[in-house]
Amino acid sequence: MRQPKINPLAVTMGIRDFKPCQYWIRETRFIDRLEIRNYMHDEAHQIARDYFLANPQYSHFLFLCEDMFFTPDHIRLLIKDVEEGDYPVISGWSNVDWTHQEGNISFRDMKNLVVRGREVYQHPKITDLVLGKHGFPIVKVWFMGTTLAMIKREVVEKLSFGAYTNIDEGHTQKMFGVRRRFGIMQDFQLCLECARLGIPIYVDLRVFCAHMVQPIGTFTAKGKPRTVTLYSKSGTTRKIREDEPYSR
Predict the structure, then answer these.
(1) What sign has the CA pseudo-torsion 201, 105, 189, 209?
(2) C-alpha to C-alpha distances, 5 to 11, 50, 128, 232, nearest whole angstrom
(3) Burial of 27 by CB count in 10 Å (0-12 exposed, 13-18 middle, 19+ buried)?
């Protein structure tokens, strides 16, 4: 049975500017897109969640990660999935990085684990995923890295969009040029909260993206204007918010 019309809000949150990724993000013109530029990741997540919840015309929150290479057809397929299956959370997937031949998903239940390193996730091998050894095309997972993740409104209402852990000011300064406490692993926290709430998560293995990994210290948030802009599918652009750059 087909579900009511899907109207997702695509959200990009970023400091970096990967040219191929930005090209396809800007070519995603058939849905509204909220661009949150030059805010630290934890702050950007809360801005995104607040805007989405304040605008009930949107049925789903869609992550358009700044460092994922995808095409609009990937999004169209996920929308079709939701129309046909009414999944509460469904996502694409990618490589973890360019060193380890692993997908950025996990079947391991990590509710009661302390997660600090990549090894804890027990990410499946990319070859196993593309050969269908875990099922195909749609599989149920415990963790997904929010690669084009589409989340139903009633689920967003229950999630904090908060961080799993924090890094200290000194490390943040090395990473982003900004000295402040910084929350990380929002994707893991999202999946953890879904698990605790009994909300299933699915991944469409046909939606494979390339994760562009940029070395820490090669980009900065310091001194850049912070803006939130809505790009409407009707072709209009509206500035939602603007803040002074981070000064330290």
Answers:
(1) negative
(2) 19, 22, 35, 17
(3) exposed
CATH number, span 8-243: 3.90.550.40
Express each pLDDT in 60-114 by its tens digit.
999 998 889 999 999 999 999 999 999 999 999 999 988 889 999 999 999 999 8
* Torsional sign, CA 29, 231, 92, 24: positive
**Global pTM value:** 0.92
Contact of 129 with 115, CB cutoff 8 Å: no
Retrieve residue 240's tokens.
């939602």
Pick 178 or 63 by higher pLDDT: 63
Angle between helices 186-197 and 41-53 (to 10 degrees): 50
Cα(first)–Cα(last) distance of the chain, in Å? 53
**Burial grade of 77 (CB within 10 A; 0-12, 13-18, 19 or more):** middle
How much of the chain is helix, strand and coil, in % rounded to 5? 30, 30, 45
- What pLDDT does 145 receive? 94
Instruction: Please give the angle made by the CA atoms of 33, 143 and 41, to the nearest 5 degrees.
Output: 45
